[in-house]
Design brief:
five-stranded antiparallel β-sheet; alpha+beta; globular
Length: 349
């Protein structure tokens, strides 16, 4: 057996979690493969968790090596699949039938990755390239949407269809000229209007395809609709919006905020969550949004981060009651960012 269940009071520093730590209310406290520190152990105790799974000391190195190897394999598959998705979408934009085999194969790979682990979150940010933003973005939104489906305990068959819907959500952007998509300055009113046509254009590209289900078609059409009616193209509200589209809307916005674009640099996951909160959470389905927030932040525990003062820190803990201000360790010092106005995470490394 590669792991063992031990009392939290028996834990010690440098042990590695062999499973996620979740409290009685389903709050994710720490994720699998986190290296324990005294600080994290004390935080786990505060949530009244009695026992946790840790790796046996002798296999930690093997698990770490396997994890690094998996990242390399995923990177290779991810880049290859992104090119396949680009090919399928470009052919569709020229009036050819959607290559449903490519779509099913790629979405199946992304679904399996999301179902097997939350770790995908920790390295897809390293693979983003704004020169191919539309296609990497579609891959990432598909992964985030699959994870949301998993975290919401949706049936696997439903998540599989959701994965496809997210992968295809932006196909209408293939109709937008590159000089608009790649523009480094602010778009004109006319250019904004052209961009806002992409949900409807995408729907027109796929609406008569018998191999594509209604949930997928409506996700393509509705992923920019908002709960409060502030979205487009139809200004729908609440239950008028397909539930898949509500999930994809959150994944879409989050990936856009945390990706480099021709006209701006990405922001950190924690600043992105603050952006959602600042700009009005009533635009999104609150259950989808909060499920995403409470799970996604814990995926970054153990990640290295560049701080606003140039130093490099490690994310130790994310308070479930203040998800925009994690606790980080810089050198030998521990900082609760909620107590520092002038210190924040700029980006993950």
């Amino acid at each position: 057996m590669n792991k063992m269940l031990i009392p939290v009071i028996s834990c010690y520093e440098n042990q590695v979690l062999a499973d996620n730590v979740i409290d009685d209310e389903g709050v994710l406290i720490a994720i699998k493969n986190t290296i324990l520190t005294d600080y994290i152990i004390e935080k786990i105790k505060l949530f009244d968790v009695d026992n946790i799974w840790v790796y046996k000391d002798e296999i930690v190195v093997e698990e770490a090596d396997a994890y690094e190897e998996h990242i390399k394999d995923f990177r290779s598959e991810y880049i290859k699949d992104t090119l396949l998705v680009k090919k399928a979408i470009m052919e569709l934009s020229k009036g050819e039938p959607l290559d449903i085999e490519i779509v099913n194969n790629v979405s199946s790979t992304l679904f399996k990755e999301a179902m097997s682990s939350n770790s995908t979150v920790r390295y897809i940010s390293r693979l983003k390239d704004y020169n191919e933003y539309t296609y990497y973005h579609s891959m990432n939104v598909s992964i985030y949407s699959s994870l949301i489906g998993k975290w919401m305990n949706l049936p696997q068959g439903v998540i599989k269809e959701l994965t496809i819907a997210a992968l295809l959500h932006d196909i209408g952007k293939s109709k937008i000229p590159n000089n608009i998509l790649d523009k480094k300055s602010k778009l004109t009113r006319e250019e904004c209007a052209i961009v806002k046509e992409h949900p409807y254009n995408g729907y027109l590209m796929i609406k008569d395809d018998v191999n594509v289900g209604i949930n997928i078609k409506e996700t393509i059409l509705m992923h920019h609709e908002r709960e409060n009616g502030s979205g487009y193209p139809q200004g729908l509200t609440g239950e008028e919006i397909n539930y898949f589209a509500k999930i994809v809307a959150v994944a879409d916005c989050y990936d856009a905020l945390t990706s480099n674009r021709p006209y701006r640099n990405k922001i950190s996951p924690f600043e992105a969550i603050g952006n959602f909160i600042k700009n009005g959470m009533d635009s999104y389905d609150i259950k989808v949004l909060m499920t995403f927030f409470k799970n996604i932040v814990n995926c970054y525990i153990g990640e290295k981060a560049e701080m606003s003062d140039g130093r490099i820190g490690e994310i130790l803990f994310v308070p479930p009651y203040d998800m925009t201000n994690p606790v980080v360790q810089i050198g030998n010092e521990i900082y609760d960012l909620s107590t520092y106005d002038d210190l924040k995470i700029v980006s993950l490394i």
